[in-house]
Design the sequence.
């Protein structure tokens, strides 16, 4: 046997032993802590309530609102079209499927933006893309979209337009979100609304 | 069998392999910070009340002047220069994992100090706090409130930022009942936004 | 290209074909240098007088394997970004049998036949012409196979996961097995009557 072959054999075994004792590198798509910090410092993950409302009104199919509050809070009031994933089940297997959907813009919200931001950080660390946080959360959404004060006539046009947009959006949501008591107390207007709904169903150009 | 001896192929190959190893070992560096908590554990820490400090507790800590409690201010240096809690250490959020910051945080950690993170809003504090928790600084707490709340007792705008629900159900009800009426003679923009609402899926009536 | 450089944006995507050409030339060179353009040499594995095919491919496999594992460890590349061909059980077995039969009959594998064409071997030219005829026939009658072709997809299955071994243990065992096979091959070569070619 050639001496070189023996030498090569020893070399291969040494390399093999090196592999054997080498700690296995983990690849779990997690982003590095330093990169996570940069992402946390970057405010571009925050979407304003007006942007979200606009996309909701336009029925943007790529938007998915995720309510990270508890189920009871979700049931008492939630932004229309949102799904409920409480913070403690944010790492569940079923959630991973939603998070992995690259075509959806996943927007977390909670009462303010602390819990939602925490959910965002956990998911960001896991390397998910296209995730956002609703700035100000449902509190801000409620207090800008649902409750809006009529601006004075002397206000700039932008403010009046913003008000009109919010007012319109607010009424848009009530159509889908009427509570039982409201139906009873307000039979006549509701009827009127139903009629217009039929009209919209029949003709494409109809409105309220 | 002789082909290996002809042009010192074996020597060249072994030298090349050795070179790769040496370069690899020289360029190999352990990252400065690593995750010490798995996502699941990090998630469980989020709901741990012991790791939170609310405004009252923070005010209490300031009053007692406990040497074991250190405030870490993660706001930018300008805000810090303007006004900050006495003896607080300023580490802006983006510099949290810099070498100098880590050195400081590690020395505080070794001394057994508890670090209370506060920021402009609880959201800013939570980001920094989660980062520290996940990278192995277990002795950190987060101020669940805004910095401005520490001075004044009840700050309504600041309360907006914390997780207390501020949904006025009564206002919602009155608005819902008032809405269709105003809608009829309301602004044209309301009409505009409503147009895309024509969906076959809506069951509950309405536009 | 499926390597880690292009998805990471180190090399622009437009360089794909250029890199493929360079690697292809390198592969062809390695095949020719190992004497794989000779169908007799390849058939040596089948009849037991020359195991150079086995040696070259096992050496290539363990070299690439060790390289990937070490580079991954040193942080030069991210092995998780490598593309892994999905494993279709039934089509892999059928395809393996068909290819093996063609290999034994023709004395070339697709890659080596092009090496043979490059140095002007007539049998290699006929073999590669047959290759294209086969591709044409397969594409024409593909609907007949479609069901079998796509059945039993296990995704990017890893053999060490299936055996329940860790990556390092499996790699080490593979190296030991390869060395053992090299010695066994040499032993068999000595026993079998030498063929002059």
Sequence:
């Amino acid at each position: 046997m050639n001496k070189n072959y023996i030498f090569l054999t020893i070399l291969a075994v040494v390399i093999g032993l090196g592999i054997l004792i080498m700690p296995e590198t983990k690849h779990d798509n997690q982003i590095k802590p330093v990169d996570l910090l940069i992402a946390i410092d970057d405010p571009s993950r925050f979407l304003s309530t007006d942007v979200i409302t606009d996309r909701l009104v336009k029925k943007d199919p790529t938007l998915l609102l995720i309510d990270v509050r508890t189920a009871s809070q979700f049931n008492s009031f939630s932004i229309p079209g949102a799904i409920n994933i409480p913070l403690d089940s944010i790492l569940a297997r079923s959630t991973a499927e939603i998070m992995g959907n690259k075509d959806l813009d996943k927007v977390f919200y909670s009462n303010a933006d602390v819990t939602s931001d925490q959910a965002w950080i956990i998911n960001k660390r896991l390397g998910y893309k296209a995730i956002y946080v609703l700035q100000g959360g449902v509190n801000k959404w409620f207090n800008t979209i649902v409750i809006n004060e009529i601006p004075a006539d002397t206000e700039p046009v932008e403010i009046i337009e913003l008000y009109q947009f919010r007012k319109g959006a607010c009424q848009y949501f009530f159509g889908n979100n009427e509570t039982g008591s409201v139906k009873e107390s307000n039979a006549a207007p509701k009827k009127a609304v139903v009629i217009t709904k039929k009209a919209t169903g029949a003709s494409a150009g109809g409105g309220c | 069998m002789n082909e290996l001896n002809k042009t010192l192929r074996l020597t060249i190959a072994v030298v090349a392999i050795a070179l790769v190893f040496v370069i690899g070992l020289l360029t190999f560096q352990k990252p400065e910070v690593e995750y010490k908590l798995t996502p699941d554990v990090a998630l469980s820490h989020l709901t741990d009340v012991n790791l939170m400090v609310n405004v009252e507790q923070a005010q209490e800590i300031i009053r007692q002047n406990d040497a074991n409690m250190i405030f870490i201010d993660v706001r930018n240096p300008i805000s810090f220069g303007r006004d900050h809690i006495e003896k607080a250490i300023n580490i802006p959020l983006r510099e949290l994992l810099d070498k100098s910051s880590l050195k400081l945080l590690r020395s505080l950690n070794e001394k057994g100090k508890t670090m209370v993170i506060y920021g402009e809003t609880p959201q800013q504090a939570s980001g920094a706090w989660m980062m520290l928790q996940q990278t192995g600084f277990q002795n950190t707490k987060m101020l669940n409130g805004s910095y401005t709340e520490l001075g004044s007792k009840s700050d309504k705008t600041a309360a907006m930022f914390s997780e207390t629900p501020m949904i006025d159900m009564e206002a919602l009800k009155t608005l819902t009942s008032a809405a269709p009426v105003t809608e009829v003679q309301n602004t044209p923009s309301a009409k505009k936004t409503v147009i895309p609402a024509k969906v076959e899926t809506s069951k509950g009536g309405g536009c | 290209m499926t390597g880690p450089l292009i998805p990471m944006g180190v090399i622009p995507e437009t360089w794909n074909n250029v890199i493929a050409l360079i690697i292809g030339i390198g592969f062809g060179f390695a095949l020719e240098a190992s004497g794989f353009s000779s169908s007799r040499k390849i058939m040596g594995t089948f009849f037991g007088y020359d195991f150079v095919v086995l040696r070259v491919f096992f050496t290539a496999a363990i070299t690439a394997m060790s390289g990937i594992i070490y580079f991954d460890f040193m942080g030069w590349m991210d092995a998780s970004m490598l593309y892994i061909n999905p494993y279709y059980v039934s089509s892999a077995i059928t395809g393996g049998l068909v290819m093996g039969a063609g290999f034994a009959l023709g004395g070339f594998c697709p890659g080596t036949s092009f090496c043979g064409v490059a140095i002007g071997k007539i049998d290699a030219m006929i073999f590669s012409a047959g290759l294209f005829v086969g591709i044409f026939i397969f594409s024409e009658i593909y609907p007949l196979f479609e069901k079998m072709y796509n059945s039993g997809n296990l995704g990017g299955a890893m053999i060490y996961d299936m055996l329940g071994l860790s990556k390092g243990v499996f790699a080490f065992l593979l190296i030991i097995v390869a060395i053992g096979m090299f010695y066994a091959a040499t032993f068999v070569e000595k026993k079998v009557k030498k063929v002059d070619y």
Notes: Residues 167-191 of chain C form the longest helix (25 residues). Residues 8 and 46 of chain C are 43 Å apart (CA to CA).
